[in-house]
Every structure is written in structure tokens, then in C-alpha cells.
Specification:
163 residues; Thiol Ester Dehydrase, Chain A; two-stranded antiparallel sheet; 5 helices; 36% strand; MaoC-like_dom
């Protein structure tokens, strides 16, 4: 009888087990993605946004404005935040985002975007999550702020960290 109970308990704890255990988002968790922005990215973003500021296309204009070279659109860099959230939580609904632009991002620099869960609360059959957001280059903050998103689940889907 004792053996049967132990086997039953062991089988019960193995149900749903896979080689990759499901992770669930909790307060304090950080999700990251790295990206290098190219001249082509800047051109394509400009076409969609209709932002053709010469700071993004002309090195001399950028230097005259006090920058080292052409700068990547700040909103293009900030697009890392919804990319991170939606890639880990397909079907997430972005609700809000505040942004503070701290340092310029130049074409060819590697930027690491991070979102950190700072508050999660159930909302009907979904979850309202508040995230601290930041982008870094060489350890320095280039953009920070906060985002809110409605998540369909707290199960974190695994994705690669490029792109």
C-alpha cells in the first residue's frame, strides 16, 4: 500500500514534465533582447514614420547638432520593448509606455533592451503587468521608462535573443 502511494505521488509530480520546464513570469523577472541597428533599419523606419530628420541621414548635420555621427531614431530603439514582451507573451496587448531618452544611439552599436516585471495582477482571465524598461549600450542607459501590458498568460515562451 505504501509503495503504491509513493509511485502514485511520483507519477503525479511528473505529469506535464517536459525537457524544458515552463517558466512563469513573476515580479523581479528580467527579459532581454540585443540588437544592432543598421543604416537600412533607419531608412526603413523613416519610410514608415515619415521622420526624415537629417540627424538620422547626414553625418555633418548630426555633428553640427552635437552628435558624434548619425543617430538612430529613439522610437525605433524603444520598439525593443514591445518586441521583447510580445515575443515572450504572444497575444499580449500593449497598454502604455513612458520613455526618457538619455543618450544617443548610433548606427552599428549593440543595444540591449530589458523589461523587468515590477507588478503583476490578475485581470479577468488575463494579467495586467507593469514593467520597468531600459535600453543599454556598453552598460550605460540610453532609454528608460515603464510599460504596461495585458498578458494572456504568465507562461514565458522561450525565444532566441537576436533580432
Amino acid at each position: 500500500m505504501l509503495t503504491r502511494n509513493l509511485v502514485s505521488a511520483s507519477l503525479h509530480s511528473l505529469r506535464g514534465f517536459s525537457s524544458e520546464a515552463t517558466r512563469f513570469l513573476k515580479t523581479g523577472d528580467i527579459l532581454k533582447r540585443a540588437r544592432i541597428f543598421t543604416s537600412e533599419d533607419v531608412l526603413e523606419y523613416s519610410k514608415v514614420s515619415h521622420d526624415s530628420n537629417p540627424l538620422h541621414f547626414d553625418s555633418e548635420s548630426a555633428r553640427n547638432a552635437g552628435f558624434e555621427d548619425r543617430v538612430v531614431h529613439g522610437m525605433l530603439v524603444a520598439a525593443l520593448f514591445p518586441k521583447i514582451i510580445s515575443s515572450h507573451f504572444p497575444g499580449a496587448i500593449y497598454v502604455s509606455q513612458s520613455l526618457h531618452f538619455r543618450l544617443p544611439v548610433y548606427i552599428g552599436e549593440e543595444i540591449v533592451g530589458e523589461v523587468q516585471a515590477i507588478n503583476i495582477r490578475p485581470q479577468k482571465n488575463r494579467y495586467l503587468a507593469k514593467f520597468k524598461t531600459a535600453c543599454f549600450k556598453d552598460g550605460s542607459v540610453v532609454i528608460d521608462g515603464e510599460a504596461m501590458a495585458i498578458l494572456p498568460s504568465l507562461a514565458v515562451e522561450q525565444t532566441n535573443t537576436s533580432g
